[in-house]
Design goal:
Number of strands: 18
Radius of gyration: 21 Å
Distance between the termini: 24 Å
CATH topology of the largest domain: Nucleotidyltransferase, domain 5
Helix content: 25-40%
Strand content: 25-35%
Order of helices and strands: HEEEEEHEEEHEHEHEEEHEHEEHHEHEHH
CATH class of the largest domain: Alpha Beta
Number of domains: 3
Number of helices: 12
Structural class: alpha+beta
Length: 346
């Protein structure tokens, strides 16, 4: 009875709970929030943990906090690594979606990586329920991404989606609203950032932080020699010199960043090829005609579509809104309950 009463005052929410970013879709309003999945936690004198910032504000603190405050990412490789902090983050996003009102118990659709364990599913459900959800529905990220990319997933034909997030890359072939074959690899935007940090340290003896690495990736990151029409692109970066310990500025090129990303990008290509090998012949024939669709933040890496097309011999396109595809897909599921019944997990 109380859930029904609270439901009258609530707006149902779909959440793309990502390793790097969390997006909120409110029924009837669309995407209302896109913030980093980062929480700043302070340790009080009594030893308790207190959340001091979430999202954009917390990300600004990464690498800049005093000893008693730590900025943490509560999700790792697409699953919950810190239960209590994830719960606090979800509560913040729910209250933000409802104008900070606590008198709400929305129904929630949450996207999770394909192939997660029963324990990991339970952790997501419990975190959402403890954060204030009245009902929690789980759907797999590749399905949500395919729906958000406007692929005809309910038809009896093969649709291939590659969803590259912060912590994982999900590759799936979908037909009749179900995943026929899939591969999930723990490679995504975060691993690409780590590869850039390692490269700059090894090649230039310069220590940079993850925010600088992310900026490099977004500015001159690439996966193919023809990614930049103008040729090799340069960028100035600042960090701490490893040998003498003082701040220093250097210039790096798009070619060396492609080299730094080659190994981790290769794992994404390998996952795509493995999925294609396992695809039934009739569905493979459909993919030859339709091609492969890229979604997620990692789909924006310059030249990745060119590289995948070269390696597979298939047409590769980037979804219209790659970063929002999972949130838009889960939102569409929220708006259409019949679709939800088809794609939800038990």
């Amino acid at each position: 009875m109380f859930n029904a009463l609270f439901g009258m005052f609530s707006k149902d929410i779909a959440i793309d709970l990502g390793t790097a970013n969390t997006l909120l879709y409110v029924k009837g309003r669309g995407i209302v929030s896109n913030e980093p999945s980062v929480v700043a936690v302070a340790t009080t004198r009594s030893g308790n943990q207190k959340v001091v910032a979430v999202g954009h504000e917390a990300k600004e603190m990464l690498g800049k906090t005093p000893g008693e405050i730590r900025a943490v990412r509560p999700l790792k490789d697409g699953v919950i690594a810190d239960f209590a902090v994830t719960e606090a983050m979800l509560r913040y996003f729910i209250q933000k979606a409802h104008n900070r009102s606590t008198f709400v118990k929305p129904r929630m659709v949450i996207c999770i990586p394909s192939g997660v364990t029963v324990v990991e599913k339970r952790a997501v459900r419990e975190s959402a329920e403890n954060a204030g959800a009245s009902e929690v529905y789980l759907i797999e990220e590749p399905l949500a991404a395919a729906i958000g990319a406007n692929l005809p997933i309910t038809e009896p034909s093969g649709n291939m989606i590659v969803d590259i997030g912060g912590g994982t890359t999900e590759v799936a072939v979908i037909s009749l609203a179900g995943i026929v074959t899939a591969e999930s690899v723990k490679v995504g935007g975060d691993k690409w950032d780590d590869a850039i940090v390692h490269h700059v340290r090894k090649r230039h003896n310069l220590i940079i932080g993850e925010r600088t690495a992310e900026r490099i990736k977004m500015s001159i990151g690439n996966a193919h020699g023809d990614a930049f029409p103008e040729g090799v692109v340069e960028m100035s970066i600042k960090g701490r010199d490893l040998t003498v310990g003082i701040p220093k500025e250097i210039t790096i090129t798009s070619d060396e960043i492609r080299e730094a990303l080659e190994e981790s990008v290769g794992l994404v290509v390998e996952a795509v090829l493995m999925t294609l090998e396992k695809t039934p012949p009739e569905l493979a024939a459909d993919i030859v005609d339709k091609g492969i669709v890229l979604a997620g933040g990692g789909a924006q890496l310059r030249g990745l579509d060119m590289l995948l097309s070269e390696q597979t011999g298939l047409p590769v396109v980037v979804a219209d809104e790659p970063l929002n595809a999972v949130a838009l897909g889960s939102g569409k599921v929220l708006e259409e309950m019949d679709l939800l019944r088809n794609v939800m997990l038990n």
